[in-house]
Amino acid sequence: MIFTNPLHVGRPNITDREAYLKLVSDMLERRWLTNDGPLVKRFEENLAKYLGVPHVVAMCNATIALEIAARALNFEGEVIVPSYTFVATAHAVHWQGITPVFADIDPRTHCLDPDSVRRCITPKTSGVIGVHLWGTPAPVEELQAVCDEHGLRLMFDAAHAFGVTHGGRRIGGFGRCEVFSFHATKFLNSIEGGAVATHDGELAEKIRLMRNFGFQGFDNVVYAGTNGKMTEVCAAMGIVNLENVDQILDANRVNYQAYVNGLANIPGIKLYTFNSNEQNNFQYIVVEVDDRFGVSRDELVAALTRENVLARKYFWPGTHKMEPYRRLFPWVDRLLPETNRIAGRVVVLPTGMQVKPDDVERICALIADIGKMR
Ligand code: T4K
């Protein structure tokens, strides 16, 4: 086995352990553990400043944040989403009795194709959720134009896109609102966590109340809400990692560059690249494997796993091929050729603070060797 310790995709980025433990120790002294505590408030303020948006509502995770945002926007009937994303995007609407309608992607960006979105619109459509997959901004302006034309609400699943810019502006302020994930595996992690960012003060207030069962004050419930609250322990991790976000970015950038160099001349291996005129977080190292590579995508993943490189086939096989969607919408498969093609080709490779550039060099050399196996 080449690597004695496993190299995971999604190993958490943990920056200043001492600072984190200090915040947690102070929290224990205060005996204020959750319910809009001082650390959650501070995290929200710091996020708003960093993102350049006036309102940020922190949540227990991005899935609940998507559900609350969709509800606050009065989504109903049908909502158009990509199939090529983590299953949470569709679940967040299906869970509330709304039908997710799957649109195809642009194979160059892996994000929604606005023409496909257009074809999915019916009289029942109420909104669109664009996903900034791998941290590449979805086609924000085109989707906004489609939505404006048809009177639809647009929001974004920005789970992958913290710290990313579009047109020089940080993701967080597009559409009616944007939802971030701070799950352990994400660029910026708060252990579990998420947030809704928006320019719309009224929407933010509604989301804030829905996060806490719909309570306005002690005894007055004004909305059907849920429990979407972030805990103080999670906020502490988020605060510390946000203060040190450049450390994470530097590690990811160096690893990405090492992958660019190491994978450059391997036939059949194409590294997914990012727009060099914008800021990215380089949290996902995405590779497309085609027929010119010596072995199949699945054989590559199996061979890497044998050497302790725990690559992932995100987001195989596509949400439309997972339950309940496969059973509910069996005909959708033939409408998603690009989703099917890309989902069958992609491998995500390890990066993050735990992975060093010489690990990356060895992973790339290993991939080259695997390609010569046949
Ligand atoms: N929208 C999009 C586009 C998303 O990608 C996600 C989540 C969401 C919405 C929903 O966000 P949250 O509700 O989760 O905030 C993982 C994550 O659980 C999930 O958050 C993430 N996307 C997705 C892309 O990846 P799995 O099923 O792959 O998780 P798992 O347990 O296999 O872990 C992934 C890798 O990370 C493994 O290699 C092990 C490693 N890992 C994981 C954890 C939790 C660690 O090394 N340490 C850890 O503590 O979904």
Description:
- It is built from 13 helices and 14 strands.
- The protein has 374 residues and is an alpha/beta fold.
- It has two domains: 17-243, Aspartate Aminotransferase, domain 2 (3-Layer(aba) Sandwich), CATH 3.40.640; 245-371, Aspartate Aminotransferase, domain 1 (Alpha-Beta Complex), CATH 3.90.1150.10.
- Helix 1 (17-30) packs antiparallel against helix 8 (232-243), helix 3 packs across helix 4 (88-94) and helix 3 packs across helix 7 (201-211).
- The chain binds ligand T4K.
Concise synopsis of the structure shown:
This protein is α/β, with parallel strands linked by helices and about 375 residues long. Helices cover about 40% and strands about 15% of the residues. It folds into two domains: about 15-245, Aspartate Aminotransferase, domain 2, CATH 3.40.640.10; about 245-370, Aspartate Aminotransferase, domain 1, CATH 3.90.1150.
